[in-house]
Amino acid sequence: MTSTSLDELEIIAARAEHVAAEWAETSPSDRAAALVAAADALTASAPELIAIAMQETGLAEARLAGELKRTAVQLRLFAEVVLDGGYLDVRIDEADPDFVLGPRADLRRYLIPLGPVLNYAASNFPFAFSVAGGDTASALAAGCPVIVKAHSGHPRLSEATARVVNHALAGAGAPDGILQVVMGQDAGVSLLQDARIQAGSFTGSIHAGQLLAGIAADRPTPIPFYGELGSVNPVFVTADALAERGEQIADGFVASVSGSAGQLCTKPGFLFVPSGHGLAEGLAERAGQVPEHRLLYPGIAKGFRDRRDTILATNGVSVIAEGSLRFDDAGQGWATPTLVSVSAAALVDAEDALLGEAFGPLAIVVEYENDHELADLADELFAGNLTGTVHAAAGETSLPLRKLVDWLSRHTGRVLFGGWPTGVAVTPAMQHGGPWPATTSDSGTSVGTASISRFLRAVSYQGAPDELLPEPLRDDNPWDVPQRRSPAGESPGWGSRA
């Protein structure tokens, strides 16, 4: 992979800055049409793109086909968001000479695009979190040009995806330069320091994310940086749930841990079950039936080997399914699931060795003594996570369960009941983000329609003549967007409904 030179970076950044105003002012219908054209082009190019992705990532054809479909669906979903216009959050306060706090001028507020966005592609989702993935789709929908720092694990796919999407965007009449790709770590750092970049988005490791977030914050003019960094996604099973559907839970757990070789940010890293659960034999049998899967690239394989070795060597850890890990001459690794067991007390004693994310097909089964301790255990062991899952029996509403759910709602972005955290739905109500270290900004999401808000900021116009207002704020509303109006004369009645 050839890194983008400094001269090339200057051209790319200048092009993004130049085109920002034009793209921001593009009508909703034209912007939506461009997003749909990109989705159609990706779908039409699926055979070519999936073949490249299989070679570069080792992911299975079926997984990649589903991911490419998800990527196209994301683009189409954001086309609907743009056409709806609600994301602009238009608020109009009519001039009111009799306002209770003194005369009020006409005030009109809405959200505008930040400007050029730098998106760092992820290794484990070469379509859905890469060149044309969710961060790109939401930023383009917001009206921001996007520069993608391609991931070194799939450079040919990144170039091919950019070619397909840009051809479609041009065919739809979108301005040139709203989607560009750069290569190399130095290019990614240099652009983040460039004053023309107005926001950053990232999916990757805690270490890299912290470094980049620090760069964004230390700029002369700091910019928002939305990083998805690390999550172990604990799952808690009550005794009643275990008795009710233990075999079903074992099936779902192994499938969730081993899917895509465990290389998912939502993989359940810890399964809390009552001591004496009796699942070990069944879990070992299920894990033993999972065929080996290539890990994404040598760096991921080496990191998984190191975490696996540390966990297996930790006092108090018992092996349920040892799994396997082999390397070829090129450093590529192939793995089968490793499952281990530890008591809750031993996990507390060895938390420095065991609590870190194991990015690959490995999970830890934690045996607890009493469900009254679950919320306190969670509070002692875990910081922020993308997800937290509860498996309870039908109708179970005990006080310990309520305390656990309350803890999860305060420390995770998504609380699941009876399911598994892998398989993130692309839909308006999805929250894919959580408190630190799951993300650098726990108010944001990188999946779902709310993710568009990361790339917008508010501006108000006071006393502006209608002909100088942006289209969404004008009385004739040429963009036909929702406008929330506060009419004159209503302030004396505030509080009367209480």
UniProtKB/TrEMBL annotation:
It comes from the Bacteria. Signal peptide: none annotated. It holds the Pfam family Aldedh. GO terms for molecular function: oxidoreductase activity, acting on the aldehyde or oxo group of donors, NAD or NADP as acceptor. Residues 466-498 are annotated as: Disordered. Residues 7-393 form the Aldehyde dehydrogenase domain. Keywords: Oxidoreductase. PANTHER family: ALDEHYDE DEHYDROGENASE-RELATED, SUCCINATE-SEMIALDEHYDE DEHYDROGENASE, MITOCHONDRIAL. This is Aldehyde dehydrogenase. It comes from Marisediminicola antarctica.
